[in-house]
Amino acid sequence: MDKNLVGYCGLYCGACGIYQGKIKQAVENLQKIIETYGFDKIMPELAKWESSLQHYQEFEKVMGGLVKLFGECPSCMSGGGDPSCAIRECCKQKPYTTCAECAELETCEKIKRYGLGTLTNLQKIKAIGIEKWIQEMQNKVAAGYCYLDEKT
């Protein structure tokens, strides 16, 4: 059970598309397909059929940026994620493992801003404990859970 996969904010890094490498993998797969079929070399011709393809070079830069930014993340507790995360700084100053330990949890504007189930997750961590919550999250991820399923 890896407690380093629990973010200060209550997100479970194991359910993150960046941590899992899904974004990097998807972009790299697209890059391989484009290269394999030589689409990158015939984009000027293809742009005659579809005008948006005239921006292909910018798209290549965006794909490179996605691979760079979303390529490797060791988890928030291990130094990954947003380097200027206010929640991480707040927890380190208190010092808390997660915001679930904080008396201001229910009213914290930093937490409310994030959405993605962070407050709900933190409330659950507080109620059942971090170990049991990690196990639940591991089971959810194994069943296909994704943070995109969260509304708030």
Describe the structure.
The radius of gyration is 20 Å and the shape is elongated. It contains seven helices and no strands. The chain has helices spanning 22-36, 43-49, 56-69, 86-93, 109-114, 118-128, 130-142. Helix 1 runs antiparallel to helix 3 and helix 6 (118-128) packs across helix 7. It has 152 residues and is mainly α. The chain folds into two domains: 1-16 and 81-152, no CATH class; 22-71. The chain starts with 21 loop residues before the first helix and ends in a 10-residue tail after the last helix. The mean pLDDT is 91.
- Detail the poorly predicted runs: none
Total beta strand runs: 0
What is the CA–CA distance across the termini? 26 Å
| Cα gyration radius (Å) | 20 Å
Mean pLDDT: 91
Attribute tags:
elongated; single chain; 152 residues; 7 helices; 2 domains; mainly alpha
Quick summary of this structure?
With 152 residues, the protein is mainly alpha-helical. It has helices at 22-36, 43-49, 56-69, 86-93, 109-114, 118-128, 130-142.
Topology:
Elements: H1 22-36, H2 43-49, H3 56-69, H4 86-93, H5 109-114, H6 118-128, H7 130-142
